[in-house]
Design brief:
Number of strands: 5
Number of helices: 4
Structural class: alpha+beta
Helix content: 40-55%
Mean pLDDT: 92
CATH architecture: 2-Layer Sandwich
Shape: globular
Distance between the termini: 16 Å
Low-confidence stretches: none
CATH topology: Beta-Lactamase
Number of domains: 1
Length: 122
């Protein structure tokens, strides 16, 4: 993992309630990730994220909602937030202690930093 990517991902894991973060390629492969204790298979997550974002994009196009921003899925015990950051998707997994507004704010605030860490193709 590049030093810049490690720093960005590590910073997100310091947010209260955040248990995992990942950068997922648009073709469904994990680029870099920090996951909790092996609870989440990064390759399975990557495939599902691409499918979920694809469905959300189709909904947005069909209903003319505009460009996709952050997709948020709320589950009984966790949150899953996904954002398109250019050549990849940025994914945050958090437990219910997390403050969604804080995570969303940090995701938006760090977009350019994430893109820069991904390299020149971003």
């Amino acid at each position: 993992m590049s030093s810049a990517l490690r720093t960005v991902l590590s910073d997100f894991t310091r947010i209260e309630g955040v248990s995992g973060v990942a950068l997922i390629s648009k073709d469904g492969f994990p680029i870099e990730y920090i996951m909790p204790r092996g609870d989440v298979d990064p390759e399975a997550l990557a495939a599902m994220v691409v499918t979920l974002i694809g469905a959300a994009t189709r909904i947005s196009e069909e209903l003319r909602f505009g460009d996709l921003d952050i997709v948020t899925a709320e589950y009984r015990n966790n949150y899953l937030l996904m954002e398109d950051v250019g050549p990849a998707f940025f994914v945050v997994i958090a437990d219910r202690r997390a403050v969604l507004g804080r995570i969303r704010f940090e995701m938006k605030r760090q977009r350019d930093r994430i893109r820069a860490a991904l390299g020149p193709s971003a």
